[in-house]
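Quick start: what a row looks like.
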Amino acid sequence: MIVLLAVTTYFISSNILINKSIVNMQQNLQLASEKLDMVLSQAETFAQMAITDEYVQDIISSPRSEYLAHYNDQIAIQNALFGMTEKTMIDSVIVYDQIGGIYGSGVEKNITDTSLPYMNKFSSSTSTSQWVDTTLANYQREDGPRNVISLYQKFYSARTGLPIGLIQLSINEKSISKQYGNISIGKGGSIFIMNQKGKIVSDDNKGRLYTSVENEPYFNWALNHQAGDIFKIDGQKQIVVSRYFPKLDWIILGVVPVGEVTKDNQMLIRQFTALSLLFIVLAALLTYITSKSITRPLLAMKKTVKKMKEGNMDVVFDIESRDEIGALGAEFNKMVNRTKHLMEQIVEDEKKRKEIELAALQSQINPHFLYNTLESISALADLGRGKDIVSLVKQLAAFYRGVLSKGSPIIRVEDELNITRNYLDILKLRYGERISSHFDVEPGVLPYRSIKLLLQPLVENAVYHGLRYKRGKGIIGVRVYSENNLLMLKVTDNGIGMQPDKLNAILREHSVHGSGFGVKSTDERIKLHFGTSYGLRIRSVYGEGTTVTAMLPLLRMEGETDDTDHDHR
């Protein structure tokens, strides 16, 4: 029995450790994915700034000038683009015009023209940009050749709207691997990135770049799963966790030896087995000696415990002796009494904890939003666009001024709409013409009560999970109206929509970084403040868009007291 217990315990504990390791690796790969997404999004922002720069537009739109003037044009573009490669992760910015002209940022040497395939591709399709896998750079810098990930983007004249050139923005692969190089997934573990063909496109070990893992046992599995599993690699069991990175159609992989995860567990099981054998021998001897004296009171205690198990918390164990059983019975009675009080306290504490958690969720603003806004301010400062900085800072200040709302979780519908408008204005400064919004508000509902930051997380979900991967222009619609004595707040997008299984699960469980986090917490906040008959409804058609509707009671702010809030809980 002890051997069976030890073996069973070993396998159970090993599976627990492996599952925990997989969860930890998934979280770390998610962190790596978010860092990469942040870097690439920043690069796309810089590319947009470069192609809208006044000097770049004027020079690339104008006919090729004579030699000296053309040289001066190259210097002017270098001055406009140099700042992007000086203080950022951008390794190179190259602009191609449509008559063979090449303009660098001043840090490149020996540039090879790679624009023709992309100009031809963009001219025959609706796409205007493409990220390209890791490859040897078509230029050199002072420290020699490098491996880069490049964004090619077609751009147009601001005056005529006609295509005038192509921009190539490159990021050193070393900058990519640094984003996950300091993330630990366990001793002996490593993180690397492959493309859909199995070629390694990023790795801390540069000797593995461009090698293929197509023949590895986990390759086909990783193409179709975002999870963790165990594979035998080079004769050793390894935990492999995969995560899809859609922006570049990459797969981020984490690999760690199973033996490193369960090593401590093996030592613990050996010690446990030895101690268990010793204890069993002693227990058998003591059981034989004392069984007759303890059987009767133990049976009585068993009946008492059974009553407690059935839910009777008023049971009392009758103490008939002063020995150990009597002492145990006295402690049992104390325990029952304490348990009864603790259960009552737990119910109350759980209610308070839920209120505190939801209050914390209410005050949480996506740090990526703030970070990206500050990065945009920094980039505008580098480019000397003072007016845009002033406008962006004013919008950011207005947004957070509305968020504070003197600390009150309940605000007017009008104030909630102002917060949402400021949030969308900030996003428009970043995304430009890719996102538009419209509001349809029934004037009579403006004085009614709303939860602070009710619309913002719904709009944020619509942008980041509905519109970010949509081709073409994204549209956010906000409609507020009253219906059947209910306040209806509706957010609509024309994004990618959701599959039915994801739609069914989104209000049942939290996802810390996924699309359900803001929706689930918003639904719980509504129910906490107004009761379980109110909350969110979601309708989504995959490929067409999503509509989220918040239903609240129609209550005015004027004359309301805290007692009114409690009446609706």
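That is the whole record. The CA atoms of residues 488 and 551 lie 5 Å apart. The longest strand covers residues 147-156.
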